[in-house]
Write a structure and sequence with these properties.
The chain is an alpha+beta fold. The chain folds into three domains: about 90 residues, 2-Layer Sandwich (Uridine Diphospho-n-acetylenolpyruvylglucosamine Reductase, domain 2); about 120 residues, 2-Layer Sandwich (Uridine Diphospho-n-acetylenolpyruvylglucosamine Reductase, domain 3), CATH 3.30.465.10; about 190 residues, Vanillyl-alcohol Oxidase, Chain A, domain 3 (3-Layer(aba) Sandwich). Helices cover about 35% and strands about 20% of the residues. The chain has 16 helices and 18 strands. The longest helix is centred in the C-terminal third of the chain and has 20 residues.
Length: about 450
């Protein structure tokens, strides 16, 4: 518990109205998109880096846990107070500080919403590629903390590929800067990349410099429908193997399609067992050629229907189904566990077969949703955390899926982070020497272990 005297000291730093400790406020910040509640002792909403630095000095002195939190969309438990403490929310630090077309970069505060930022840079003919499905809610700071990706990852990569520099408040209250606005920077250790994906365990991010790319002049959006899930999966590896790099290549199985139809009104053929949503971008002539080639690939590999958007509005209609997928599936049961294992693309058909096998073996309802073009799987396990018998089966299924992904040369998470949800699996991917090295880095930054304790380290 935090004493009243310490609470008053922190209130004096951030202002009384930005220190929240009523039961209603604490419940609001007690969970993320999936995990059960962990009640914090308080929530603060600072207005600048100096306030954060002041709070960190008090927290470091008093050994008070601090948990940075963006929009809480992370679904892995990296922004909940597992061991109590104070949550720092960033919705007041929500300004786009600079957009520099000449330098192809921008500077933002961590509370800027991803989609708002994308809209702002598009006005300059530029694009910020990382586009998590939660982009209309999730913040750039949270994206950096989790190294988030999204559908465009197959061509453009994830957050770390566009991160140039950071301003960070350390647990001691010191403020450091890493990287800068230059596209090349090889001075010293790459602290910028070390912070990316650190899930709030090393420092508090207060300013972010990102790289921008030119907005593509043209794009084509296609939806291919299959009677066989395996045929859809093998189409993905065939497209990538042929040297075609689409902007996005998404896969949804029949379970997901059924829910979407009931939830959002999108209609799919009764024969459909899987849908691929594919987008390519670039110069007009290349996009036209790639679109035709991909359509041929799909038909040759079993697609009985290939629809191509003729207008931006039609493209939005095709994308609407994918954007509503998680919300639709999550509405079926009290809880939806979203896994994030990622495998080499050539192993995509094998891991999808494994998901189907595991669902049948443990009598679970699991939808298959995937950023298929980069091998990033999101099995959607519909369940109820209160059903202990079913949760025991869910746990067994998760272990089998994780083991299968690792055996196929994959990883525990492609874009969601480890957090609390996957911390028990760390030894499956990393040796003890690797884990001890990470813990050693944590001790250098945070010797008193006050930043997000109880998370993946």
């Amino acid at each position: 518990m935090i004493s009243d005297a310490i609470k008053d000291e922190i209130r004096a730093i951030v202002g009384h109205e930005w220190f929240l400790d009523s039961p209603e406020d604490l419940v609001t910040y007690s969970y993320d998109g999936f995990l059960r509640e962990f009640m914090p002792d308080a929530v603060i909403v600072p207005g600048d880096k100096e306030e954060i630095a002041g709070v960190m000095k008090v927290a470091n002195r008093e050994r008070i846990n601090i948990i940075p939190r963006g929009a809480g969309t992370n679904i892995c438990g990296s922004s909940v107070a597992r061991e109590g403490g104070i949550i720092i929310a960033f919705h007041r630090l929500n300004r786009i500080l600079e957009i520099e077309p000449e330098s192809m970069c921008a500077v933002v505060q961590p509370g800027v919403v991803n989609a708002d930022f994308q809209k702002a840079v598009a006005a300059y003919g530029l694009m910020y590629p990382p586009d998590p499905a939660s982009m209309f809610v999730s913040t750039i700071g949270g994206n950096v903390a989790l190294n988030a990706g999204g559908p465009r990852g197959v061509k453009y990569g994830v957050t770390r590929d566009y991160l140039l520099g950071l301003e960070v408040v350390l647990p001691s209250g010191e403020i450091i800067r890493t990287g800068g606005k230059t596209l090349k920077n090889v001075s010293g250790y790459n602290l910028t990349q070390l912070m990316c994906g650190s899930e709030g365990t090393l420092g508090i991010i207060t300013e972010i410099i990102v790289r921008l790319v030119p907005l593509a002049p043209a794009k084509a959006t296609l939806q291919a429908t299959y009677r066989d899930l395996d045929h859809a999966a093998t189409t993905v590896s065939a497209i990538i193997g042929a040297g075609i790099v689409p902007t996005t290549l998404e896969l949804m199985d029949r379970t997901v399609l059924d829910v979407i139809s009931d939830y959002g009104g999108a209609q799919f053929s009764d024969e459909a067992q899987a849908v691929l949503l594919i987008e390519v971008d670039g110069e007009d002539i290349l996009v036209e050629a790639q679109g035709k080639r991909i359509e041929a690939f799909c038909r040759e590999r079993g697609a009985f229907q290939v629809e191509r958007a003729g207008t931006p509005e039609e493209a939005d209609r095709l994308w609407q189904a994918r954007r509503t997928a998680f919300g639709a599936v999550a509405s079926l049961r009290p809880n939806c566990i979203v896994e994030d294992a990622t495998v080499p693309v050539k192993m995509l058909p094998a891991i999808i077969r494994k998901i189907v096998e595991v669902a049948d073996k443990y009598d679970l309802q699991i939808g298959v949703l995937a950023h298929a073009g980069d091998g990033n799987l999101h099995p959607l396990i519909m369940t109820d955390l209160r059903d202990t018998e079913e949760m025991a089966r869910v746990d067994q299924a998760l272990v089998e899926l994780v083991d299968a992904a690792i055996e196929m040369g994959g990883t525990l998470t492609g874009e969601h982070g480890i957090g609390i949800a996957k911390d028990r699996f760390m030894t499956k991917e990393f040796s003890q020497a690797s884990i001890q090295l990470m813990r050693g880095i944590k001790r250098v930054f945070d010797p008193h272990n006050i930043l997000n304790p109880g998370s993946f380290l």
